[in-house]
Amino acid sequence: FADQMGVDAVGFRKYMDYLSATVTISPLLGLLGTVTGMIGSFSILDSGAGASAITGGVGEALIATASGLCVAIMAFIVYTIFSHRLDSI
């Protein structure tokens, strides 16, 4: 039974790398959304639109950042829980 638990732990550790990558990449994707939203805002500003037209792009940028951080935080919590459980096997 102990050998089987060791084999299962090795299999789970393989998937922990994917979870770790999710934790790392999510904020970067949020930042990418922030940059594209701000580029959109500045292009609207360049065309002579008013301040109210710019706020849509800024809001989009903030939502992208918040979404990336939320995904990263949740994935980090799951990663930490699974990591502690695997260490106890």
Automatic annotation (TrEMBL):
Alphabetical GO biological process terms: protein import
Keywords: Cell membrane, Membrane, Protein transport, Transmembrane, Transmembrane helix, Transport
Gene Ontology cellular component terms for the protein in this record: plasma membrane
Keyword RNA-binding in annotation: no
Keyword Cell membrane: yes
Residue ranges of domain MotA/TolQ/ExbB proton channel in the record: 13-88
Location of this chain's protein in the cell: Cell membrane
Membrane topology listed for this record: Multi-pass membrane protein
Transmembrane segments: 21-42, 62-82
Protein family (similarity comment): Belongs to the ExbB/TolQ family.
Name of the protein in its database record: Transporter, MotA/TolQ/ExbB proton channel family protein
